Structure prediction request, 424 residues.
Amino acid sequence: MGSRVRVHNDMPPGHIRTPAYLRGKCGVIERTLGPFPNPEQLAYRHSGAPLALHRVRFTMAEVWGAAAETPTDTIEAEIYAHWLEPADAA
Amino acid sequence: MTDTITQGDGHRWHDMGGAAAGEIPLADHDFALWEKRVDALMILCSAKGHFTVDGLRRVLEDMPPSSFEELSYYERWIASVSQNLVEAGVLTTFEIGERMSAIRERGPTYGDAADG
Amino acid sequence: MPHDHHDHLSPSGHPFRADDDHPLSYWQTMEISVRELLIEKGVTTAAEIAHQIDAMDNRTPANGAAVVARVWTDPDFHAAMQHDASAATSEMGFNIGPMKLIAVENTADLHNIVVCTLCSCYPRNLLGLPPDWYKSRAYRSRTVREPRRVLAEFGVTLPSTTQIRVHDSTADMRYIVIPARPDGTDGWSKDDLAHLVTRDSMVGTGLPKSPDAPDTLA
Prediction:
């Protein structure tokens, strides 16, 4: 498993493929893919300079806190590199 | 695009992960011919480079929240395919509408009006 | 105009919904308009559209089931699927196009389930068109938050010792769940094994059929 990352907590308008429920959350990179063109630009008929795409694994506890159905279950999602920053060590 | 922000914090309605919702409706339906044609037009036009699936999604997301309940999946898709083709310069809104009026003259059902 | 041969039964055996008996809707009119204009402008042809519909009709969960059965019986293919599932399935004739396929495997300790919270991304070339429930607000909203309650609605209950992993299909990957091979199937042919693999088991909302009851509806 790769490095620990945090998802940016921005709320931009428009076409974004980073789900709101993951913004601000920390996870671990499961694998890196791509590069792929940026859908945020493709959606508006611009060519999107290719970006790395990271599959990030989150625990349910991290995402939902005390409301987690089963804290040790996990979610994996694909997050474009510009939405991620290194997370401080746990 | 800002018309569809339904929460003060900018959380868009289509971004549904984690929202409260009821039981999952398990009933399925067989796709009608017109729905398969919508699907085919999307696949073909995007493969030919007239628009991207990203553009398709963007137009779907910019629809008002009520469209998810009031329009079926492929009704929203044909609306998005049309808009994307107009943005691409392949079709104009005028000619789409003009042809639609002519189609309505052909008869009251899809069977009457299609393949005319 | 060539005779349209889609008018009888759909691939599931059900009749197409009787559009012919219902009043033409605004959106159906738009479909006809757009299709005719695209053909007249030479963007596409009626034959090309019909061919695409046929191609989509021929993509059924049987494709995915064949892949699963081969994973279960062919160790080299299993390894290839873990390394590059797009390439491995492409060699079976299933072309995923510009997307990339990832196969996620169920074990006694891990159960995978796939959702697209943002829209309806789905491995169409292996499973056909997604069912209505996959595209529903309830499935898209709840699966990432309460997958066990969602699974219960599909009649699946897993022990607390099994981790559930939800895959949110947010970008260019498409996912197929490789269910765990049912016990009591040693020596079975790939075809017989494929018959145990349901569509839902490849999305993660179901389990494969039992070898004791392979003909039950799943």
